[in-house]
Amino acid sequence: MSQVLVIESSARQQDSVSRQLTAEFVRQWQAAHPQDRVQLRDLAREPVPHLDADLLGGWMTPAEQQSPAEQAALQRSERLTAELLTADVLVLAAPMYNFAIPSTLKAWLDHVLRAGVTFKYTDKGAQGLLQGKRAFVLTARGGVYAGSAMDHQEPYLRQALGFIGIHDVQFVHAEGLNLGGEFAQQGLLKARQRLAELAPAA
């Protein structure tokens, strides 16, 4: 039995394509892996604060010297990191906002990319500590950006996940959604076809 952690980051609840893709992925995954447990964290409903002095203090200040705010920030980071550590499969759902990921997803990453916990520094450089995990990234994009210099989603997420040891990463892009007509229909159809291939085979 595997633990699947799903991270939603779309600011929209209704009419969100990334949420539609997530729902389809989870249905297909559970049909293929009925014993697996799925945990959902919705960063729009429960936003994670951005990196601030309290969180930095919680990480860097000895426990007996931490302020209440630093303790609370550290506990939040510990909780989010524990969810990631216990997951076997990570699903990130992200619309493209201004060529990149939502700031809420960046804030989540800032809480879980932690030296000594999810990666460590060695004399040969940084080493990820989360080997053996898999990730699926489901994106929704108004235009067509895959493989172009304007795509700052996939390269960043590949680097961030690889930095903590997650190298088995599959991307599913629903592109051209704001171009209307055939472009939007084909973009969504291709994404759904890719989902149908990935979830049962994973």
From TrEMBL:
Recorded catalytic reaction(s): these are: N,N-dimethyl-1,4-phenylenediamine + anthranilate + 2 NAD(+) = 2-(4-dimethylaminophenyl)diazenylbenzoate + 2 NADH + 2 H(+); 2 a quinone + NADH + H(+) = 2 a 1,4-benzosemiquinone + NAD(+)
Q: What does this protein do?
A: Also exhibits azoreductase activity. Catalyzes the reductive cleavage of the azo bond in aromatic azo compounds to the corresponding amines. Quinone reductase that provides resistance to thiol-specific stress caused by electrophilic quinones.
* Species in which this protein is naturally found: Pseudomonas mangrovi
Gene giving rise to this polypeptide: azoR
Name the protein family. Answer: Belongs to the azoreductase type 1 family.
User: How the cofactor binds, per note?
Assistant: Binds 1 FMN per subunit.
- Mind telling me which PANTHER family this protein's record contains? FMN-DEPENDENT NADH-AZOREDUCTASE 1 (PTHR43741), FMN-DEPENDENT NADH:QUINONE OXIDOREDUCTASE (PTHR43741:SF2)
Q: Report residues binding FMN.
A: S10, S16, V17, S18, M96, Y97, N98, F99
- What is the protein name stated in its UniProt record? FMN dependent NADH:quinone oxidoreductase
Name the UniProt key words of this record, in alphabetical order: Flavoprotein, FMN, NAD, Oxidoreductase
